Amino acid sequence: MTGGDLWLRSGLPAIGGLAVTHTSKPQDTDLRARLTPLQYDVTQNAGTEPAFSGAYWDTKDAGTYRCVVCDAALFSSDTKFDSGTGWPSFYQALAPDAVELHDDRAYGMVRTEVVCSSCGAHLGHVFPDGPRPTGERYCMNSASLRLDSDA
């Protein structure tokens, strides 16, 4: 089952068939005070940083990638790979419930948006052209992530 299967027709995530809402989203004033303008735009307005410009697109450091908004653990460096796209890419989330997926039909395209399941922050998109074992490419914005290094 993919994360997309966990969404009700209403667009709200479902756990055990019940709709749930994001519980740890900080207040807008707090977000504007502690996030950079780019981080705010990406996470709150579904913005996108330019390719090859983010802090983590080429990072090889070991660790856990966390949500810049709520600090939830999202991805492991063990699943990060060089997709050649200029954005950090992972072939799976840290846990099946770490992220939520839903349809994104903005800009005349059909894509699958990835958001933090804890706070709803926009992270990026997932595509079906990744490596084994999943065949998925979670194409994330560095601006939505913080690397908690193992070193």
What does this structure look like?
It is a single chain. The protein is mainly β and 151 residues long. The protein has one domain: Beta Complex (Metal Binding Protein, Guanine Nucleotide Exchange Factor, Chain A). The chain is 11% helix and 29% strand. The protein is globular. The termini are far apart. The N terminus is likely disordered.
CATH architecture classification name: Beta Complex
Instruction: Determine the strand fraction and express it as a percent band.
Output: 25-35%
Oligomer: single chain
Write out the strand line-up for the largest beta sheet, numbering strands in chain order. Answer: 5-6-10-9-8-7
What structural class is derived from the secondary structure elements? Answer: mainly beta
CATH superfamily grouping: Peptide methionine sulfoxide reductase
Q: Would you state the CATH class?
A: Mainly Beta
Average pLDDT taken over every residue: 87
- How many discrete structural domains? 1
Low-confidence stretches: 1-21
Number of separate strands? 11
Radius of gyration: 15 Å
